Amino acid sequence: MANPVSTDNSRTGTWLRRVSQALSGEPQDRAELVEHLRDAHERGLVDSEALEMLLGVLEVADIQVRDIMVPRAQMIFVRRDDPSEKLVPAVLESGHSRFPVMDADRDDVVGILLAKDLLRVFAGEEPSENRFDIRECMRPAVFVPESKRVNVLLKEFRRNRNHMAIVVDEYGGVSGLVTIEDALEQIVGEIDDEFDDEDETNIRREDARNFSVRGATPIEEFNRYFSTTLADDEFDTIAGLVIKQLGRLPRRGEAVTIEGFEFKVARADRRRVDTLRLFAPRDIRLPADGESAG
């Protein structure tokens, strides 16, 4: 039979530890830890960038792959049977380093093509477009479910030395892709590289009725550019209007319609909406070709 004195001592020790933790001011849960971090920031012990990264580390365990993936509709991929005269320009124009390879007949991902592997083929001693076969240089694809947590994904990327994974839904269909950069951006914020657009123009015309719009574009500037009257009494930017329409921060690929304009989120993270694709309604007068806003 257990010694009652020993049991009482154990209970007393547990109670004393809890009282000690409460009196010491140590955080008891994540909410309190966040309060301590914000307090440290206010007292100048942690700068703003460090605070954002620390909060990102805490939050990344709650984010699922579906929240950060590039939706299938926005994936840049190549076909397994694409000829080299079509494949090479597509790779060079995109500026990406990895490409999902789709089956020629079905929309199934059958591998990953690395731009550097393609370069090795065409930089060989006796390059021949006639003998090029993408199957010889594509690598196996890694598949992950939409529900996988991002912190787990990061561990797998690091352990397996992968930089891209294909995201599948509950039925096994391809729903998008995710890269190690997408995962890291949840901690450190947006990562730009030499291929990212450095143009500071807020509204840029892509074709007849399609535009690229920065989330930070002032509503006043948008109204002036499109001769519209979107309300700016509650929010100052286009991103603010989109967030209001959805009632939350949107994910990439989500779309909303505001007064006939269809806004589709092209780039976003857990902090902000960076870039939107805009389709203008046909009954509105558009600026002349080449006109831009900045």
Descriptive account of the structure:
- By secondary structure, the chain is an alpha+beta fold.
- The chain has 9 helices and 12 strands.
- The strands form 3 sheets. It has a 5-stranded antiparallel sheet, with helices on one face. Strands 1-7-6-5 form a 4-stranded mixed sheet. A 3-stranded mixed sheet has the order 2-3-4.
- A hairpin with a 5-residue loop joins strand 6 and strand 7.
- The model has no long low-confidence stretch (mean pLDDT 78).
List the keywords:
4-stranded mixed sheet; 35% helix; 19% strand; 294 residues; alpha+beta; 9 helices
H/E series: HHHEEHEEHEHEEHEEHHEEE
Query: Mean pLDDT, as a whole number?
Result: 78
| Category by helix and strand content | alpha+beta
End-to-end gap: 81 Å
- Count of DSSP E strands? 12
Helix content: 25-40%
Main β-sheet, in a few words? 5 strands, antiparallel
Our Rg estimate from Cα atoms comes to 25 Å
Low-confidence stretches: none
The percent range for strand residues is: 15-25%
Q: In one word, what is the shape? A: globular
Q: How do the strands line up in the largest sheet?
A: 8-9-12-11-10
Oligomer: single chain
The number of helices is 9
